[in-house]
């Protein structure tokens, strides 16, 4: 075992790399992203309205999944670790599963939790700002509990 990670850059459609795969003894062990998940056009900043909306939605893991899917067809990477071609779809499915779970929460639970949190906030405190803080805190706790249970 050499002890140091060797990196191979992963490029998408443009010539600039979007990330890198790290290897230890010809085994892929790490994926590094060069861009934030919300940076859709990969220009290095989250500036547009669409990118800000994506940041609020929370596309956590999007760029890692994209790097893995691009790397699975890179001959240099597959030659070093042939198993990576099977691991990349698992990484993408893990990302997609998170999106589905988040969608289920938004579609079936978010509105009811918001209404319940509003009722709890009105009983606990007066003042719109305090009620907003209590409601948002309630929503966050319920959402985190839901995500942890799934």
Outline:
59% of the residues lie in helices and 14% in strands. The protein contains five helices and three strands; from the N terminus they run βββααααα.
Explain what the structure shows.
- The protein folds into two domains: 1-82, no CATH class; 98-150, no CATH class.
- The longest helix is centred in the last third of the chain and has 41 residues, at 84-124.
- The protein has five helices and three strands.
- The protein has helices spanning 49-57, 62-71, 75-80, 84-124, 128-149; strands at 6-11, 17-24, 27-33.
- Helix content is 59%, strand content 14%.
- The mean pLDDT is 87.
- Helix 2 runs antiparallel to helix 4 and helix 4 runs antiparallel to helix 5.
- A three-stranded antiparallel sheet has the order 1-2-3.
- The chain is α+β, with helices and mostly antiparallel strands and 150 residues long.
Number of helices: 5
Secondary-structure-derived class: alpha+beta
Share of β-strand residues? 5-15%
Order of helices and strands: EEEHHHHH
Largest sheet: 3 strands, antiparallel
The percentage helix is 55-70%
CA radius of gyration: 20 Å
Shape type: elongated
Terminus-to-terminus distance: 38 Å
Strand order of the largest sheet: 1-2-3
- Low-pLDDT sequence parts: none
Please, how many domains?
A: 2
Average pLDDT value?
87
Number of strands: 3
